[in-house]
Amino acid sequence: MSNLQGKVAVVTGAASGIGKSIAVRLAQAGAAVVVCDLNGEAARAAAESLPAVAAGKHGFVAVDVTDKEQVQAAVRAIVAEHGAIDILCNNAGVSTMNRIEDLTEQEWDFNFGVNTKGVFLFTQAVFPHMKARGRGRMINTASMAGKRATPLLAHYAASKWAVVGFTKSAAVEFAPFGVTVNCVCPGFVKTSMQERELVWEAELRGMTPQEVKDEYVRLTPLGRIQEPEDVAKAVCFLASDEADFITGEALDVTGGAHLL
Ligand SMILES: NC(=O)c1ccc[n+]([C@@H]2O[C@H](COP(=O)([O-])OP(=O)(O)OC[C@H]3O[C@@H](n4cnc5c(N)ncnc54)[C@H](O)[C@@H]3O)[C@@H](O)[C@H]2O)c1
Asked: What is the pTM of this model?
């Protein structure tokens, strides 16, 4: 396990699923973790459940990542309370599922708002603090859908391709200031997002949710549905000293699903 003692980590969308698992893993490695989420009550509960390994204390902020003022206020409050931000994990994300011919403008805006604009707003708010200290780690949660065709999720895929492009561009812009920017691209991860998608996909394809899930396993060479911890371990590596010369990477964490 990496040593993140003394580091302050901010994780968005950390009240559940992959983000919560990232928060736990970073806390286990010794970081003080600030759980940021739209759902303030769940964020509080997630923060309170984190292992107390850190010298500093964990915290939480209720924040909508699509709202610039809320994001800037959240970052100001975190820096005021914790003194700095060493690690930013832009993980909050949403999905809807639809054929392009039926896709609504609202769906498009919803997916791009959280998945893409949210990453931009948090990155922009946190960067000056990292720049001033000459170091920092940013890790965005993109998706396997951010690198390949993903029918029924074209809008979501487009929003995640944007995250990969933003990650690589930010990596070059921020490199002179000692700030690395990477993203992880998970596959089929067992979270509430997946539970919703199983139902939608089953309906759109005339299958049962179990049949869709079995297909996800067949499409994963390592032969199982991914756990959020699989992603959290990769994020923790990218946040650690072991990854100090890696930037602009989009790391597949899929059990091989991206290969098929
Ligand atoms: N589950 C998968 O199979 C999978 C695969 C690839 C990538 N991802 C990505 O992983 C990330 C986490 O997804 P998950 O599966 O854990 O989903 P999830 O629904 O379990 O968790 C998402 C979290 O983000 C929060 N959130 C949503 N909108 C927000 C907003 N506007 N502001 C702040 N917080 C907000 C939610 O409250 C929730 O706690 C997302 O970016 C998702 O696109 C998931």
From this structure: 0.98
| Index of the ligand 1 atom closest to the CA of residue 64 | 32
**Beta strand 179-186 pairing with 136-141:** parallel
C-beta separation of 33 from 21 below 8 A: no
Q: How confident is the model at residue 52 (pLDDT cuts 50, 70, 90)?
A: confident
How far is ligand 1, taken at its centre, from the CA of residue 206, in Å?
26
Superfamily of domain 8-188+227-253: NAD(P)-binding Rossmann-like Domain (3.40.50.720)
CA 13, 113, 130, 39 dihedral sign is negative
Residue nearest to atom 8 of ligand 1 (CA): 143
Q: Hey, which residues are catalytic here? A: 156
| Structure confidence by residue, pLDDT tens digits, 80-118 | 999 999 999 999 999 999 999 999 999 999 999 999 999
31 to 3, 58, 89: CA distances (angstroms): 8, 8, 13
167-171 long-range Cβ contacts below 8 angstroms, 24+ apart: 167/140, 167/142, 167/248, 167/250, 168/248, 168/250, 170/123, 170/138, 171/247, 171/248
Calpha distance 76→136 (Å, rounded): 16
